[in-house]
Design goal:
Elements: H1 4-9, H2 14-18, H3 21-30, H4 32-52, H5 60-75, E1 83-85, H6 101-112, E2 119-120, E3 125-126, H7 131-141, E4 145-149, H8 152-164, E5 168-172, E6 178-179, E7 183-184, H9 185-192, E8 195-199, H10 207-213, E9 218-224, H11 240-249, E10 253-259, H12 278-284, E11 287-291, E12 302-306, H13 308-316, H14 319-322, H15 327-341, H16 349-355, H17 358-375, E13 379-388, E14 398-407, H18 413-421, E15 427-432, E16 435-439, H19 448-460
Pyridoxal-5'-phosphate binds at residues 151-153, 156, 179, 183, 224-225, 227, 257, 259-260, 291, 302, 392.
């Protein structure tokens, strides 16, 4: 009988399915609620198919296969280790900065033990969570006071709300940036209750543009780091020094959203001298905000550093409580700052990867190619590649890198990339002229074995 109703009736009920032998191990592994949910979804799919076409009916084996693959998928953590063979160091989609081993230890310790998070051990009274990093951050940035919140978007929102609500904030039209879709300066401004006053043009904004825009309603001049784009050619914007003087002559605040948060001298990372550095910003601006997990190389936080009177106002603003940093992150951030204070830059993975020399990278690529050649029969070459700092840090900075390219005997690069993404430890790599390209800069020492097996599997598939 091919009547729809009969084919629907032929589908076994939940109680019967739950008693199937192949379901039993999954009941244990996943728990009854999740197994039932998955089966329900599979059954709904079958019902839909039966209604859609006369061809479709319930087939035991097909149902079993489909359920088993859904069970297996559900049994793996969704958030999982991925090998970054893209050469993009601060890869926003892959979790931005990796955290230093020392910092990871501190994070584990603070996660699994009680701590003096908000307890002053000397006085035996309530303490401040911010106190664990404030002095370090001031030492490293040169600022009078500082505060750490959940992320930089929160830092900018909080600072604008606490310092500029119901007044005008002047921003150059060349700096009205959008970062990663959801962070847009005009929207954040709106949300904060401050009024955006745009000045200048996209490519040129002069000091007199700011000067003319200042009125008694103005509370702040805001400079924003154009993290993910560059305007080139006929451009101009005032120096920090000039903006700072203009703001102070007019008794308004000069704030800078530094974005990436470079915390060392630029030459330590081989970055151009004009790349935004927190220390430089803090020497001119009254308030500087920055991310913890971009060029700083720490966990996700938003830093606010600057003049004490202003930081005090921000600390007291009720929104600060809603954006506060959690203890695990705070422990990781403190530990990262300690590494900075000790000058142990190569302990910080983001800094280490950015500092790797082309010669070092070439040696790594050659070693990888040699190992792969021993196992795989394919065209394997060591090639020069372009790596990037990435992560809305400094877009124009391309890094000279090295990698290994491999050509599959019959499949295109897209196919191989897809295979690599589907593994238990997925590998994300580049492609060029139908060859996959493994950039070695972002590969960790303990990932090579897994990586080599993955590539072997992909090239032999
Ligand atoms: C990245 C960035 C932000 C957002 O920082 P998050 O840490 O992602 O919240 C804000 N402003 C600038 C200029 C940035 O580059």
């Amino acid at each position: 009988m091919s009547d729809v109703k009969q084919r629907l009736i032929d589908i076994p009920g939940m109680d019967i399915i739950l008693n199937y032998e192949w379901v039993q191990t999954w009941l244990e592994k996943l728990g009854r609620i999740r197994v039932k949910r998955i089966i329900n979804k599979e059954l709904a799919d079958i019902r839909k198919k039966i209604i859609e076409s006369e061809e479709n009916r319930f087939i035991d084996e097909e149902f079993k296969d489909s359920c088993m693959s859904s069970f297996a998928f559900a049994s793996r953590p969704s958030l999982t280790h991925v090998i970054n063979a893209s050469g993009v160091v601060i890869h926003t989609n892959l979790g931005r900065s990796l955290i230093a081993d020392e910092a990871v230890k501190a994070m584990c310790e603070s996660a699994s033990h009680y701590s003096n998070l908000e307890y002053d051990l000397k006085a035996g009274t309530r303490g401040q969570r911010n106190s664990h990093v404030e002095d370090l951050l001031c030492t490293l940035t040169g600022a009078e006071a500082s505060l750490v919140v959940n992320n930089n978007a929160g830092a900018v929102l909080l600072a604008l709300s606490a310092l500029a609500k119901d007044s005008e904030v002047i921003v150059s039209r060349g700096e009205l940036v959008e970062i990663g879709g959801s962070f847009r300066i005009p929207d954040i401004m709106n949300l904060s209750g401050a009024f955006l006053k745009e000045v200048g043009t996209t490519n040129r904004t002069h000091l007199y543009d700011y000067e003319r825009a200042i009125t008694e309603k103005t509370s702040m001049l805001l400079k924003v780091h154009p993290s993910n784009f560059r305007i080139e050619g006929f451009t101009t914007s005032p120096e920090r020094k000039e903006l700072s003087k203009l703001a102070h002559d007019n008794h308004v605040i000069f704030m800078e959203d530094a974005g990436s948060g470079l915390l060392v001298e630029n030459d330590i990372l081989n970055l151009p001298s004009d790349e935004t550095n927190i220390k430089t910003c803090a020497s001119y601006a009254d308030i500087v905000t920055f991310s913890g997990d971009k060029l700083l190389g720490g966990p996700q936080i938003g830093g606010i550093a600057g003049r004490k009177a202003l930081i005090d106002r921000i600390k007291k603003y009720p929104m600060a409580r809603a954006l506060r940093v959690d203890k695990v992150t705070l422990a990781g951030f403190e530990s990262t700052l300690r590494l900075y204070a000790q000058g142990m830059y190569d302990e910080i993975p983001t800094l280490r990867m950015l500092r790797l020399s082309p010669e070092d990278l070439k040696t790594r690529a050659e070693k990888l190619a040699e190992e792969l050649s021993r196992r795989i029969n394919a065209l394997i070459r060591v090639i020069e590649v372009e790596d990037a700092a990435g992560g809305g840090s400094c877009p124009e900075i391309k890094l000279k890198g090295w990698g290994v390219s491999l050509k599959h005997k019959s499949e295109g690069a897209g196919h191989v990339q897809k295979f690599l993404r589907g593994l238990d430890v997925p590998v994300l790599c580049g492609a060029r002229d139908d060859e996959i390209v493994i950039h070695v800069r972002t590969i960790l020492d303990d990932e090579y074995e897994t990586l080599i097996s993955a590539i072997e599997g992909a090239m032999n598939a």
